[in-house]
Every structure is written in structure tokens, then in C-alpha cells.
Automatic annotation (TrEMBL):
Residues 3-95 form the Pyrroline-5-carboxylate reductase catalytic N-terminal domain. Its main location: cytoplasm. One of its GO terms (cellular component) is cytoplasm. It holds the Pfam family F420_oxidored. Belongs to the pyrroline-5-carboxylate reductase family. Residues 159-263 form the Pyrroline-5-carboxylate reductase dimerisation domain. It comes from Actinopolyspora mortivallis. This is Pyrroline-5-carboxylate reductase.
Amino acid sequence: MSTIAVLGAGKIGESLLSGLLDAGHAPEKLVFTERYQQRVDELTERYGVHGVDVPTAVERADVLVVSVKPQDIEPLLDEIAPLVTPEKLVVTLCAGLPTGLFERRFAAGTPVVRVMPNTPMLVGEAMSAISGGTHATEAQLDTVEQLLGSVGRVVRVPESQQDAVTALSGSGPAYFFYLVEAMVDAGILLGLPRSVAAELVVQSAVGSAAMLREGEGHPVIMREGVTSPAGTTISGIRELEKHGVRAAMIDAIEAAHSRSVELGATHRRTDE
């Protein structure tokens, strides 16, 4: 079994550690890095996985999972670039950053796989999209798919589609949370206690998602199944259309896509 190092044990990094342990990976085959000692102690106590410094993590591991914020990537690359060899598999979870950035900084032939996960990884329900760089093999993509499969579902996409994935599923949970927040507020406005409104809305969301996953039909058909002639639902749908909610959602996802492209562009060479 490969030794895996998670470089940056924030929420996503911790969720991956937890998922890998649940999937049967031995704690001694996992290490992580984290800049704050209190956080290192907390995670070590919680999971039995050792926090180490970055050079030690790179030396020990066969698979390096880079899980830092995009704005923190340059100092990390400066530190690990002299240590990374083509025998190691680099998996980047950094939003917007292309595989070419890593390939240029590491030794020639180093395999890199780009991943866009999302925060439901915290509850084992992530949606992750993976793309192989120039030197990543099919077997290495299989390895990454297996790793990410321990915390949710995985799809493969061309790297050219990763900015769209970032906008749609990477940012997607925030859109759902935003909608749930608005619906709960509406329930309070109508006189329901917050706790009751929240339970009604959250369970409605969980049940609706389960119906979608189980393939009950196209979302339009499923919505029509709730929408009776001259009923309450169609009155609500009319207001959503009147206020341009559908158009606003499309615009929001387009804006997130543009921002993802911008993040990557700052790290691309002008000749690319």
C-alpha cells in the first residue's frame, strides 16, 4: 500500500485523511503537514496519523496530495520542487491551478493529477472530478479515483473542463446552502420556529437529492410532478421565474467559472 502525504490538512485535507482511514488505509501509511502545532496535535490525537514537516512528508510518501489554498502554492512549490522525483505521484486539489504549473516546477516526467473536490467530502459525499497531466498514466488515474472514491463520487474530465467543474460542483454546495438559507428565512417569515423551518427544508433537500440520484426522472419532469394546476407550487414557481432566479443561477456559475480561469491564468506562462 502506498504512503500518502496530505500537504495542508485544512477541512478538505482532514476529510480526505478521515475517508482514507475509513476505507482501510493504515494510519502508519498516512502523514500530513500543517503549519500550526495545535492543529497538528489535534489531528494526530483524533486520527492517529502523524503530522510531519514538509520535507519529511515528501521523502516518505509515494503520493503527494497538495491541499493548500491557491494563493499559498508558490511558497510550497519552492520548498518541495527540489525534493519531488518522477517516481512520486502528485495530486493537486488546488482550485484553478493547472497541471502544467506543477509539471514545470518538478523534475521532468513527474506525473500530476488535478482534482476538483467539494466540501461534502466532510460527510463522505464529495463530488470530485479528476484530470491527468502530461505524464499521468491510466494506472495512476485509477489510483486517484480509488483514493477520492473513499470520500464520495468521482468522474474523469479533460483538464480543459476543470474550470467549469470548479464553478458547478466545486462552488455548488454554497449555492444550495444559499437557497436553503433563503427558504428557512421564508419559513420564519410565515411564523414557523427556526428549528422547525430548518428541519422541513433540509429534509426536503435530502429527499429531493435522493430522488435525483436514484434516477426518478429529469428534474423538469420531477418538478412537474409536484406542480398541480392552479396549485400552490405553480404560484411559487411563477415568482421564481418573475425574479429571474434561473438566470441569476446561470450568471453566478458563469462568474465562478471566470474567477477560476483568472486564478489559473496568474500561473500560466504567456506562451501557453
